[in-house]
């Protein structure tokens, strides 16, 4: 969807604009245009090409075997459980295959991404939106946009967490009636039951990774951007004189993420699908590549959607006992049809 194109509700009504105390005027796809569809993106394909050349050179003889294994037994080899995650040609084909099947049955249903800070909701969400030809929203970004582009950390500090959560719920509510959206929510959006009421109108996907992986990512990004992690930590930047070392910041982030996940796990578990972030081999430290996470998500959503379709078909496959006798049933003719005077009180 082009960035300027107006969103449409499922009813086909265009977005209302100029409503006060509403985010509607801001509800334009903000970032989907940054990635082209997975198979065609120069930004993705170019680095992958060079990376693939390196891998191919290193593994040329192995690759033939791996490809054959992938065809033969769904790719599960002792070396790498999912060889297509290392071979982006293969992954591209698999993404296309699953997207082609899913797009027919998804029928514009929204995809909501939930998960802890650093799980990659925004990164995966943008690529997913382009692959499905959906628009992309990030609730944190919409809130920032609505507050003169002030960062989330400043809104937390000035207006408080409750206020932030109200804004988040308002956006979730306003986005839910639209179609063809991928929405990356803030890590805490799962805490409010009212948000679930809206998110469950679509498909909710939990990006779930080890807290050690999440801590590595958020520490690299800068913990100060995440107010719930920065709270109580030394203000000095990592590596600054007298400040905590990068390793200390990462350890502190991990410990906070552990306790947040403990509180939130039961909410995340309400998601329709769980998408693991785990990476193998060279990706063990950084987690599975974004395209691989997206493929895992597409596969899980497709399984869900196809199961629902089978269930619906099954429900239609019934027979009315004694249906052959229906033709003998007598029905009462209404007084109006007989042309009779209506009974008192029934006029
Ligand atoms: N598959 C991946 N491999 C390596 N790094 C990744 C991957 N996905 C995301 N990242 C990195 O992890 C960091 C967090 O990603 P992102 O902002 O998408 O997460 P998020 O879930 O939206 O986080 P938050 O809820 O805190 O906004 C970013 O630096 C991003 O580049
Ligand atoms: O996990 C959380 O509670 C948060 C995650 C971020 O995305 C922001 O929404 C905010 O920093 C709160």
UniProtKB/TrEMBL annotation:
Region of interest: Disordered: 322-347
Gene Ontology terms describing biological process: amino acid biosynthetic process; aromatic amino acid family biosynthetic process; chorismate biosynthetic process
Entries under Pfam families matching the protein: SKI (PF01202)
UniProt-recorded name of the protein: shikimate kinase
InterPro entries, per database record: P-loop_NTPase, Shikimate/glucono_kinase, Shikimate_kinase/TSH1, Shikimate_kinase_CS
Annotated catalysed reactions: shikimate + ATP = 3-phosphoshikimate + ADP + H(+)
Pathways per UniProt: Metabolic intermediate biosynthesis; chorismate biosynthesis; chorismate from D-erythrose 4-phosphate and phosphoenolpyruvate: step 5/7
Domain of life: Eukaryota
The entry's keywords: Amino-acid biosynthesis, Aromatic amino acid biosynthesis, ATP-binding, Kinase, Nucleotide-binding, Transferase
GO cellular component, one term: cytosol
Keyword Amino-acid biosynthesis attached: yes
Gene Ontology molecular function terms on file: ATP binding; shikimate kinase activity
């Amino acid at each position: 969807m082009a960035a300027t194109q107006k969103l449409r509700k499922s009813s086909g009504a265009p977005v209302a604009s100029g409503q006060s105390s509403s985010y509607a005027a801001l509800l334009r796809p903000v970032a989907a245009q940054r990635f082209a569809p997975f198979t065609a993106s120069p930004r993705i394909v170019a680095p992958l090409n060079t990376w693939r050349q390196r891998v191919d050179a290193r593994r040329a003889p192995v690759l033939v075997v791996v490809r054959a294994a992938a065809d033969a037994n769904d790719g599960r080899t002792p070396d790498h459980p999912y060889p297509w995650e290392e071979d982006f040609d293969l992954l591209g084909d698999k993404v296309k295959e699953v997207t082609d099947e899913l797009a027919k049955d998804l029928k514009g249903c929204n995809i909501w991404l939930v998960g802890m800070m650093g799980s990659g909701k925004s990164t995966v969400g943008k690529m997913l939106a382009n692959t499905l030809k959906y628009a992309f929203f990030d609730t944190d970004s919409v809130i920032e946009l609505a507050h003169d582009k002030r960062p989330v950390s400043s809104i937390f500090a000035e207006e408080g967490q409750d206020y932030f959560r109200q804004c988040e719920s308002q956006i979730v509510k306003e986005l839910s009636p639209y179609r063809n959206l991928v929405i990356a929510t803030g890590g805490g959006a799962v805490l409010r039951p009212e948000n679930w009421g809206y998110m469950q109108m679509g498909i909710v996907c939990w990006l779930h990774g080890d807290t050690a992986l999440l801590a590595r990512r958020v520490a690299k990004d800068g913990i100060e951007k995440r107010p719930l992690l920065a709270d109580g930590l030394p203000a000095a930047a990592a590596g600054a004189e007298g400040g905590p070392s990068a390793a200390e910041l990462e350890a502190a982030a991990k410990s906070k993420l552990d306790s947040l996940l403990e509180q939130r796990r039961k909410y995340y578990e309400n998601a329709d699908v769980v998408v693991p972030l785990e990476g193998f081999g060279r990706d063990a430290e950084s987690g599975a590549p974004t395209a691989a996470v997206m493929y895992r998500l597409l596969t899980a959503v497709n399984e869900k959607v196809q199961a629902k379709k089978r269930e619906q078909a099954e429900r239609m496959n019934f027979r009315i006992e004694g249906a052959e006798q229906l033709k003998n049933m007598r029905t009462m003719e209404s007084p109006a049809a007989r042309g009779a005077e209506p009974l008192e009180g029934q006029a």
